[in-house]
Write a structure and sequence with these properties.
Structural class: alpha/beta
Largest sheet: 5 strands, parallel
CATH superfamily of the largest domain: Rhodanese-like domain
Number of domains: 3
Number of strands: 10
Strand order of the largest sheet: 4-9-8-5-7
Order of helices and strands: HHHEHHEEHHEHEHEEHEHEHE
Number of helices: 12
CATH class of the largest domain: Alpha Beta
CATH topology of the largest domain: Oxidized Rhodanese, domain 1
């Protein structure tokens, strides 16, 4: 049995032990305190894997079936299902069934906030994280960024074209109001509809997503004035800025 499963079992054993008191007589019980803090730790343990952190980042964009999650994180369906069950057991994920397929989503917006906080703490305190990000994202010299509030104001005034360069399923689950879907793999086809020389802002999944960087480089190369949103759609949504969902899109 894994350490994670042992902790989960131990906390539940305390809750189901004979004679458990829930009144003042139980105050100060060492076993009760251990079980309480073990329960807190179960949430952190459920994220104690890079693949699980990646799953949370993916599901912040919208719900996905197991097979698609496995393909995105480069794992087998069996390994991915193991990660998903552990996260669901800790209360981080919820599911729905559609025929034979099981769809996973974040249990609440608070889970997304937790994952964002973990990422921000790592960015501030983990030595070498900036170098790791650079190794993945490449050099960002020449890629200009725009803040959320500035983009919201300019979008409302019709001064800029906003491209959502995530996969179309993620756009359908929720997107910046007024944005156009232009998945990075199909970018050139979508650019035909843009007036030459347009000012364009691209966004994707978040600050560590490569799609927006790739789109900005291509847009600049083709003569557009392009920048990327400083982070991504989940941050835009958490900031309370206008979001839209296509009619008939799957549940979040």
């Amino acid at each position: 049995m894994t350490t994670e499963a042992t902790q989960f079992k131990r906390s539940n054993e305390y809750l189901t032990r004979p004679g458990l008191r829930t009144d003042h007589e139980g105050m100060g019980d060492r076993a009760a305190k251990d079980a309480l803090f073990d329960a807190f730790a179960e949430v952190a343990k459920a994220l104690a894997s890079g693949r699980r952190a990646e799953i949370a980042d993916l599901l912040a964009q919208g719900e996905r079936p197991v097979e698609e999650i496995a393909a995105e994180i480069g794992q087998s369906v069996a390994n991915t299902s193991h990660h998903l069950r552990a996260m669901a057991r800790a209360g981080l994920l919820a599911t729905r069934r559609d025929g034979t397929r099981i769809f996973y989503r974040l249990a609440s917006d608070r889970v997304d906030e937790l994952c964002a906080a973990v990422r921000d703490v790592a960015a501030s305190h983990v030595a070498g994280l900036e170098q790791l990000a650079r190794a993945y994202l490449g050099e960002r010299d020449g890629i200009e960024v725009v803040g959320r509030e500035e983009l919201a104001a300019r979008l409302e005034r019709g001064e800029v074209i906003v491209l959502d360069v995530r996969p179309s399923a993620e756009f359908e689950s929720g997107h910046v109001t007024g944005a156009r879907s232009a998945p990075v793999a199909e970018l050139r086809r979508h650019l035909r509809a843009l007036p030459p020389g347009s000012e364009v802002v691209a966004y994707c999944r978040g600050p560590y997503c490569v799609y927006a960087d790739e789109a900005v480089r291509e847009l600049n190369r083709l003569g557009f004035r392009a920048r990327r949103l400083i982070d991504g759609f989940p941050e835009w949504k958490r900031a309370g800025l206008p979001v839209a969902e296509l009619a008939g899109a799957g549940r979040r």
